[in-house]
Specification:
By secondary structure, the chain is an all-alpha fold. It contains 14 helices and no strands. The radius of gyration is 33 Å and the shape is elongated.
């Protein structure tokens, strides 16, 4: 379990590399899925086009959505977009940067699927075989006496593995459509390459300071959320420890009073006291359920302003400052406020 926890922490600390690895895995998975996928065209005039085009469009959409689902930054983006403004303004540039970053990674696997599908040409042959002009592929006596409906049924059977007559028509039509499909595939790859090159080339033409500022604060939002989650976990662990210790101390005290036993001091008691003090410090003065609920509520509705400063104030004013301005970190509700050692607070400010 500890090794698994260490691995999770490593992945969280190297999220960008991890997401790039996920994109590579999705690309390889899409190529492997296509190679093992058994293509079977319906060979019916009413369904060939739907099946062929669906094979070209539906899997890329699925890969695109899967890329969004597997990206942890989606929840951060949604939270930042929907959160109340409070004391911290929302910068649309940061939201755009995060959305573009997620979208770029999610488009890799769909682009590969479309490229492989067009290069292979099977979906194109299935979708557009009924649109062929038979006269362009030779004058066959078997075809001349067929009605329009029979011609459509004949053309719909071109992608099928069943015996097809005339065989020359099937070979010529297959080569022709596959040629068009591969041309479209190369054009698609060329367009993607040109678009990627233009993005890389145009980016330095814009103000790099604005880009770096946006990139910095997007990373800050991600790191802030991780640290907040870690702090909440640490506080919950300390809160549970103190609560359980107090419970057992109360029970043991009642049992001693009932049986008339007297406790004896020892060195282990001193060690337990030290551990209790460390757990008490980790509570940061928040010792009631209502207080913690208010901390979490204020963090969502009114995050502290990003302004760096250091204030040296007395204990009372410090308690009011932390309770009213910074979300009541050292005790919100008056009836649940406890005397704790006050610490210096850093508030962050930015015009972003």
């Amino acid at each position: 379990m500890d090794k698994f926890r260490v691995m999770i922490q490593f992945l969280q600390s190297n999220q960008e590399s991890f997401m790039n690895g996920i994109c590579v895995i999705m690309v390889l998975a899409s190529a492997q899925m296509y190679s093992t996928f058994e293509f079977s065209c319906p060979c019916m005039p009413d369904y060939n086009y739907t099946y062929g085009v669906g094979l070209l469009i539906v899997p890329p959409i699925w890969f695109f959505l899967l890329g969004f689902v597997m990206n942890n930054n989606v929840s951060i983006l949604a939270e930042e977009w929907k959160r109340p403004t409070g004391k911290r303004k929302k910068d649309p540039a940061i939201l755009r940067y995060m959305f573009c970053s997620i979208t770029q990674r999610s488009l890799i696997a769909p682009a590969l699927w479309v490229s492989v599908t067009l290069m292979d040409g099977k979906s194109f042959i299935c979708a557009f075989s009924i649109d062929l002009d038979i006269d362009k592929f030779g004058n066959y006596s078997l075809v001349k006496g067929l009605s329009q409906t029979e011609k459509l049924k004949l053309l719909a059977r071109i992608p099928c593995k069943d015996p097809f007559e005339p065989q020359e028509l099937k070979v010529a039509a297959t080569h022709y459509i596959k040629f068009i499909s591969q041309v479209c595939g190369w054009m698609f790859l060329l367009m993607i390459t040109i678009a990627a090159f233009m993005i890389r080339a145009i980016r330095p033409c814009f103000t790099q300071a604005a880009f770096l500022k946006t990139k910095y604060w997007s990373h800050y939002i991600d790191i802030e959320r991780k640290m907040f989650d870690e702090t909440c976990k640490e506080h919950a662990k300390s809160f549970a420890k103190v609560c359980i210790h107090q419970y057992f101390e109360n029970i043991s005290g009642e049992m001693r009073n009932f049986h008339g036993y007297h406790s004896k001091g020892s060195d282990s008691d001193d060690e337990d006291e030290d551990k209790k003090k460390s757990d008490e410090e980790k509570l940061l003065g928040i010792r009631a359920q209502d207080d913690m609920n208010k901390v979490l509520w204020n963090w969502h509705t009114c995050k502290p302003a990003l302004a760096l400063r250091k204030d040296q104030i007395d204990g009372v004013n410090n308690g009011q400052l932390n309770g009213k301005i910074n979300g009541a970190v050292n005790g919100f509700v008056q009836e649940h406020t406890y005397d704790v050692e006050k610490k210096e607070w850093a508030v962050y400010y930015s015009k972003v």
